[in-house]
Amino acid sequence: MKKILLILVFSFLSLSFYLSSRFKKTEVKDADTIIVSFTILEDIVSQIAGEEFDVYSITEPGEEVHGYKPTPSDLIKASNGLIFIENGFGFELWSDKFLSNLNLERITISDYLEPIYITEDAYTGKPNPHAWISPKRGKIYIDAIVLALTELKPESEEIFVKNGKVYKDRLSQIDKEFSLFINTLKKNERYLVSCEGAFSYLTNDYGLAEAFLWPVNAETQITPKRMAKVIKTVKENDIPAVFCESTVSAESQLTVVEETGAIFGGNLFVDSLSLEGGPASTYIELLEYNLETIKNSFHTHQEG
């Protein structure tokens, strides 16, 4: 009798464990989780997805993305996802190895973009990954994500298209404001001087020249020759302000300030959003903050 009872108890527990496992798997799938590589993509996808998907970023606000090293907890987080959305153009140096451990469909935004190539140093000939920094290119991100989400959930296509249109309209307004600002500058002032060469898409799309202390992802390659070149450019063109990026040190750029008399305009956001409550906690805020920071720095010089 005891033996039969033990068998029944064991069978019941086994069945309970099986049903529990099935329920958990179904629960994860029903969550419709999308994993993305960095915070800017997290915000863009979230804005378009609305309540149709949960979206999570592997990297956190303020983190350096290029050389990020995923953790075991990142793998656990991603294992619950339906798809993985990345920027591409070599931005996520870690993504191939990361995805090799996961059974996730991969969507790469750069497949929809026309690259601007890096022209200096070790990364010569490789695409600059920072296309989102231009509002004009940001619209392409939106179109690509609308398409991807629609393929995942066709019944919600109307929601994705509507959200995408609203989002693109906001980018169009920022695009217009930046274009109007550029038209107020003298031709010799139409330079954007930064620490990293991360603004090529912005400068290309708005008729600006670009100068920087190091090319993409090469902070350790600041040389006396490169420093002298930037200083000469700023002096010869009477460039009023220079900038750096929020995820790197501005120390080298302050040397340019000391040597030229230009003002340090501040840190611009490029690879990552700020923490919630910060000046650039959404993609729209990032673009607006960068535009206002650049405008204010140039106007301060003009008023002086």
Descriptive account of the structure:
With 304 residues, the protein is α/β, with parallel strands linked by helices. The protein folds into two domains: 28-177, Rossmann fold, CATH 3.40.50.1980; 184-303, 3-Layer(aba) Sandwich (Rossmann fold). Helix content is 48%, strand content 13%. The protein contains ten helices and eight strands. It has helices spanning 2-30, 39-49, 72-79, 95-99, 135-152, 157-182, 200-205, 224-236, 251-260, 283-303, and strands spanning 33-36, 54-57, 83-86, 105-108, 191-196, 209-214, 241-245, 263-268. The protein has a four-stranded parallel β-sheet. It has a two-stranded parallel sheet with strand order 5-6. Strand 3, helix 4 (95-99) and strand 4 form a beta-alpha-beta unit. Helix 2 crosses helix 5 (135-152), helix 6 (157-182) runs parallel beside helix 10 and helix 8 crosses helix 9. It is globular. The N and C termini lie far apart (97 Å). 37% of the residues are buried. Mean pLDDT is 88; it is low at 1-30.
